[in-house]
Design brief:
This protein is mostly helical. It has a domain at 17-164 and 229-249. The chain contains 14 helices and no strands. Helix 1 (2-18) packs antiparallel against helix 2 (25-35), helix 5 (57-79) runs antiparallel to helix 7 and helix 10 (158-165) packs across helix 13. It is elongated, with a radius of gyration of 25 Å. The two termini are 36 Å apart. This is General transcription factor II-I repeat domain-containing protein 2-like.
């Protein structure tokens, strides 16, 4: 009966949490599985199913590491989402995550699990030989290298991102020749600077005057490089609410 109640709670927690961040929702499922691994083994044993893998300490170490790193990836994914998120904001989030990966790698070599709570609990239950610090540090290194490879093109666009974020602090002399004159006019325009301070960088790109066509074109091109999924997900959420309301009313 206890196992049944826990299985029902697992189902409810999965249904609630999986919809929060859909493509990383499985990370929370990993967390729930790690919490219920003993009960899962008991259930499988009662059904005559093989549960040797689930009882293996090294496999459990792999599982809790997956739980922790997926939780960090979920936080990164959430930082990519939301109203008025621009490519430069995503670039900052990605750079910060790469620095964090390097920190975690160093701390893993020292068996410092400050930012890996599930691994910390597991480390208190198994020996250091079972929980191989080098093995998991190498995994973090591999993740960091892969992120660097996938987002290497971002570095080439760094100056464009800075111009999109705040054109009023860009050094005109180092800017592209085709926008230098317009950039000078923009930076010397007190009204536009006040407008920027009021609406922020995301909305300011939409109010750049037509008299500055090169800056408008640059802003449009840069913003379209990697848009947030917020605008796509917002109407989907509204449609889901409407459909649920229709079913309840019907």
């Amino acid at each position: 009966m206890l196992l049944y109640r826990k299985s029902i709670n697992l189902k409810r927690r999965y249904e609630t949490k999986h919809t929060e961040v859909r493509w990383l929702g499985r990370g929370k499922v990993f967390n729930i599985v790690s919490e219920l691994v003993e009960e899962i083994c008991q259930f499988m044993d009662s059904k005559g199913k093989e549960s040797k893998v689930l009882k293996d300490e090294k496999w459990k170490c792999e599982l809790v590491f997956l739980v922790d790193i997926t939780a960090h990836l979920r936080v990164l994914n959430i930082r990519f989402r939301g109203r008025d998120r621009m490519i430069c904001d995503m670039y900052d989030a990605m750079k910060a995550f790469q620095v964090k990966l390097r920190l975690w790698e160093t701390q893993m070599h020292q068996l410092n699990m400050s930012h890996f709570p599930c691994c910390q609990v597991m480390l208190s239950q198994v020996s250091a030989t079972v929980f191989s610090k080098k093995h998991f540090a190498d995994k973090l290194s591999a993740v960091r290298i892969e992120f660097t490879r996938c987002y290497s093109d971002f570095e080439a666009q760094k100056n464009n991102f800075e111009l999109l974020r705040n054109p009023f602090v860009i050094n005109v002399e180092t800017a592209l020749a085709q926008i230098q004159m317009e950039l000078t006019e923009l930076q010397c325009n007190g009204i536009l600077k006040e407008k920027y301070n009021c609406v922020g960088p995301a909305r300011f790109t939409c109010v750049i005057p037509k008299a500055l066509p090169q800056l408008r074109l640059h802003a449009t091109r840069t913003r379209s490089l990697f848009g947030s999924t917020y605008l796509c997900e917002q109407p989907f959420s509204v449609m889901k609410i409407v459909m649920c309301s229709s079913v309840l009313d019907g």
